[in-house]
Specification:
single chain; alpha+beta; five-stranded mixed barrel
Length: 245
């Protein structure tokens, strides 16, 4: 095409980058749809009737299901999930075994976030001794966490860097439900403002628009450069051949 001469290198760069930019845009759209589905399922489970610990164990998809419990915490075996942040502050999440008297099952309850500004001093928390009625929901992580170290601290409360419910039951010397239960806000909870997802669907849509805009800008720049190069080539040919009709 005489009116379009982008050159070999720009063509190769566009062929390499344009599909990637378009793919990233569609990937963000897909992630946004997944987040919408996740939030819809969470809302539906929150509106459904609460489950018992036995029903959690038999459920195929227990994530976000609400649970009502009645019993006591095990104050002797507390786990502190390290490196949790809120509003730029570093802290821990407190997980404790809870014996549900109605089902005679042990469950691992996350009571929420506690600040830990000075690591020379243990985090301050207390454990109610009386029988309690609790409302919680089942948390199922979206994937396996990236684990820096599998080393386990000694003593109690025990500092951990990831949640492995089965390993935690072994360390506590008990058998229990293998899902983490996150406590709803209440008298027995610490800071329990749980984020269902780190990014809203609208944020993924915004990122998709940015990727598509970059793809469009790259394509427009490629066309402009090709046309400009062709015009310069045509002008050079005219100058080198003054008698050319």
């Amino acid at each position: 095409m005489s009116g379009f001469r982008p050159g070999l290198l720009p063509t190769l760069l566009v062929l390499a980058m344009l599909p990637v930019l378009v793919w990233l845009g569609f990937w963000q759209l897909e992630r946004g749809e997944q987040k919408r589905d996740l939030l819809a399922r969470q809302e539906a489970r929150q509106q459904a009737a609460p489950l018992s610990p036995e029903q959690i164990e038999s459920s195929v998809q227990p994530a976000f299901s609400r649970v009502h419990l009645q019993g006591r915490f095990d104050a002797e075996h507390s786990f502190l999930l390290d490196s949790r942040t809120r509003d730029g502050q570093v802290g821990v999440e407190l997980l404790q075994p809870f014996h549900d008297e109605l089902s005679d099952r042990w469950v691992m309850v996350n009571r929420g976030w506690i600040p830990w500004p000075d690591r020379r001093v243990p985090p301050a928390f207390d454990t109610p001794a009386q029988s309690l009625k609790l409302a919680a929901w089942v948390y199922v992580p979206p994937g396996k966490p990236f684990i820096f170290s599998h080393r386990t601290a000694e003593g109690w409360p025990r500092l951990i860097n990831h949640v492995d419910i089965e390993a935690m039951w072994q360390q506590a010397g008990r058998e229990g439900v293998i899902h983490e239960l996150r406590l709803e806000p209440g008298p027995s909870a610490y800071r329990a403002d749980w984020a269902i997802t780190s990014m809203r669907p609208s944020q993924h849509l915004g990122y998709a628009v940015q990727w598509f805009a970059l793809a469009a800008a790259l394509l427009a720049l490629f066309i402009y450069f090709g046309v400009h190069q062709a015009r310069e080539k045509h002008s050079d040919d005219d100058e080198s051949n003054p008698c050319r009709p």
